[in-house]
Amino acid sequence: MDIRTIRSLGYGALSYLLADLASGEAALIDPQACDMPLIQAMLGERQLSLRWVLRTHDHDDQRPGELATLRRLGAPIVQGRPEAGVQMPADGDTLPLGASAIRVLRTPGHTPHCLSYVWADRVFCGALLDVGDCPWQPWPADAAMLWDSVTQKVFTLPDETLLFPGQDCHSHSVSTVHDQRRWHPYFAQCSRDDFLARIAALEDEAQCQQA
Description:
alpha/beta
């Protein structure tokens, strides 16, 4: 198994190319339309067959044409938000990739339809943990759902599980469940009520600054 990270220019988005080298099958997680030439080159360089395009979340309303461009890759698109021609998996569904499989977790909160993808001891969780750092949506669509998704889905995984985020915000792109559970600036060492109150206060402050 192999993972390649793609750092998109402009707004710090991270995409991932997962490859089962024995079978030559690959999956893309959160590819960006602006990175299409690089993606095509990476697939061609290693003669990989693209099996899946997996989206943890989307901001297509802010970025028109993004989904249409991704369709040109020719692989099934998997996402949580209903859209014609995409696959919307249930929580716990598995997607085959060579001799392995990718497990889907429904983790709403950042957006209403967020998904996370588990591949062996790795979880690709998009912007789920990047509170305040997503350029398209700084604050959660539903803070209560986000808290539940993080604490009940992600933080219950084994301590050594590797977490791959959707934004390159803190000069590193991989952490562990243990580290995030202990040190995350929003989720660690606080209760659900504390978290919700803090998010509400930050949103109020941001609105006052914009007024």
